[in-house]
Design brief:
This protein has 97 residues and is mainly beta. It has one helix spanning 89-96, and strands at residues 2-5, 8-14, 20-24, 39-43, 55-59, 62-66, 71-75, 85-86.
Amino acid sequence: MALRNGGRLLGCVTDAFGSVTVAACGGVPPPAAPRPPADVIVLAVDPETGVLGRAVVEAQGQSVTLASDLSATRVTPGQVPAAPTTMAAGEFQQRFA
């Protein structure tokens, strides 16, 4: 008899006394759960006014401040915001144009 438990094959062996022994075989573990998508937040100069403000991004009780043109952070559900970086202008155009 064989049972499956979370993607692992379990083999059952009955001994002379009728006891059942279950042993986990070295099967392939289930695939890792996919990473949750991250949000990308980018601060950019207003193209109509040329004004650049500031943005405070907060998650999990921690915050980062975006204060320069094309400064960016990533926020993944359940995690703190990533340290700010500067997004390349070409990437900004590709993502948001």
